[in-house]
Amino acid sequence: MASTTKTLAELKEIVAHYRTELEKAETALLDRQDGMKKRVIAMENRLAYKYDWKRAVEQGLVKNVQRILDECADYLCHDLGAEFVAAAKTRFGKEDTLEREEFCILVIQYLRSRGSFHCEETKLFDDFEDTAGGCDEITENAAIYLIENPDWKPAA
Question: CA-CA distance, 27 to 8, in Å (whole number)?
Answer without folding.
Answer: 28
